[in-house]
Design goal:
By secondary structure, the chain is mainly alpha-helical. It has a single domain, classed as Amino acid/polyamine transporter I (Up-down Bundle). The chain contains 19 helices and no strands. The longest helix has 39 residues.
Length: 475
């Protein structure tokens, strides 16, 4: 691995990367709709007790694999073996299939605000049709060299953070001026009710605080090395956690929780702010719509190709066909990207056919996205436990305490994640048929197919090895 370009990322650049990977304003509305004001303290606790320890785990994996650029597959291979490494890498690709289904309706809503100043509400089926067209456009653009998107989304992420800081200041100022919030801010409303439903929705919080695994691959590129990386990413995580918590605490100052929607909720909040301060709601709606549309559509464009490229390029050659993994002139496995497109389409339409409104559709898809988002961290944490148990001798610059401390912390996190995954997969009061059809079958079918595919690869590799050994060498 070349060291020529190492140490080129400064502290501010790392902060920007972390914000882009972790912070998402729609997470604030989604969790407020489900948890109310109790999402505020939960966000802060998730930052302290999940994001920071998980950053330590990722940093240790990166530090132990300095000569690797591929990430997840190489992190899992030594502790868990090649099959589990493949499945773990597959989950990183697989999770995004469901993430697209929850993101696309937001793109439609914010585009509506950007053009009209308000949200044009569609039926679930119409939403699915428009989402399909948007995803086709995103797939085409992302496979044809959208290298400028990284810079744009980083800038927009900074603008989004700025918007949230403006909201926090103005909402706080309104309260200080004597405004009674639309929903009361009390100790009672902020105290979470711990039950099966809350445990399932906690996955949404964990998903919102996630993203460290995508940032941590830059550890070797940061000026100052591991110490600077750890210090800055923790600072960024705490700052993001404070923004999440503060915004969640003040999100119902102008608009009650009951009136917010999953699709255009963040724009609705800013329109409520505009009404209070006597600003033009049409202008504010359009400005916020433009910023959020660019943000979410930019994310859609980037992630349409990135997980495909990571998964299909990092695993051993031969698992997939050469045509599937072949890179086009822009360095993207185009056929794999379009295969992803055709997999996502039924994932959009199945819940749409079983939902009465776009709100119901979003509730189903966001919940499943949050549940499947737990899978890659579960693989990573299981691998970390095995790393500390069986491979603690491997040289690395950073360790999360002693082996006993690291294992104890990770076991606690892993237990919470497994419970959260089960609670999100089997939510309280849900239609058991829809749960089995969408939540359970999606995970079982995709992971089962991936496991069978890997078994087929092993058999093919063994047959090739037998043929090679039986073929006499030419003299």
């Amino acid at each position: 691995m070349s060291e020529t370009n190492r140490g080129t990322i400064g502290k501010f650049a790392l902060l920007a990367l972390t914000f882009s990977a972790v912070f998402g304003p729609r997470n604030i509305v989604n969790n407020n709709i489900e948890l109310g004001l109790s999402s505020a303290p939960i966000f802060l606790l998730a930052t302290i007790f999940y994001f920071i320890p998980f950053v330590f785990i990722i940093a240790e994996f990166v530090s132990a694999n300095k000569n690797s650029e591929s990430g997840l597959y190489d992190w899992l291979k030594t502790p868990l073996g090649e099959r589990a490494a493949y499945l773990g890498s597959f989950t990183y690709f697989f999770v995004n299939l469901f993430w697209f289904t929850s993101l696309l309706p937001n793109v439609i809503a914010f585009a509506s605000y950007a053009m009209l100043g308000y949200e044009q509400v569609f039926s679930p089926l119409t939403t699915a049709v428009i989402s399909t067209a948007l995803f086709a456009l995103a797939t085409y653009v992302s496979t044809h060299g959208a290298s400028w998107l990284g810079k744009i989304t980083s800038v927009v992420a900074s603008v989004v953070v700025g918007l949230m800081l403006v909201y926090i200041v103005l909402a706080g100022g309104a309260l200080a001026g004597g405004l009674q919030p639309a929903d009361p801010i009390t100790l009672e409303t902020m105290t979470p009710t711990i039950n099966w439903a809350t445990l399932g929705i906690m996955c949404w919080i964990f998903q919102a605080a996630g993203g460290a695994e995508s940032v941590a691959v830059y550890l070797n590129d940061v000026k100052g090395g591991a110490k600077t990386f750890i210090r800055m990413i923790i600072a960024a995580g705490l700052f993001i956690g404070l923004i999440y918590a503060s915004s969640s605490l003040l999100i119902n100052v102008f608009v009650p929780r009951a009136e917010l929607t999953f699709t255009g909720g963040m724009a609705e909040v800013f329109i409520g702010l505009a009404q209070h301060y006597g600003l033009s709601t049409a202008i504010v709606g359009r400005v916020v719509g433009v910023v959020l549309f660019i943000s979410v559509f930019g994310s859609l464009l980037m992630w349409s190709a990135t997980p495909v490229k990571v998964h299909f390029s990092e695993i051993p050659k031969g698992i997939y066909g050469e045509k599937t993994t072949e890179l086009n002139s822009y360095g993207v496995p185009e056929r794999a990207a379009w295969a992803q497109f055709f997999i996502v389409i039924p994932l959009m339409f199945i819940p749409a056919l079983g939902s009465e409104t776009a709100q119901d559709l979003m509730s189903t898809t966001v919940n499943m996205t949050a549940a499947t988002a737990m899978l890659p961290p579960i693989f990573i944490m299981a691998a970390y436990i095995m790393l500390r148990r069986n491979h603690d001798h491997l040289e690395r610059d950073f360790r999360m305490g002693s082996a006993k401390v690291g294992i104890a912390i990770t076991m606690m996190l892993l237990s919470i994640f497994v419970i959260g995954f089960l609670a999100a997969t089997f939510p309280t009061g849900s239609d058991i048929v829809q749960v089995l059809l969408y939540n359970v079958s999606g995970v079982v079918i995709f992971l089962g197919a991936a496991n069978l595919w890997y078994s087929h690869y092993l058999k093919k590799a063994q047959r090739s090895e037998v043929v090679e050994q039986a073929t006499p060498a030419h003299i």
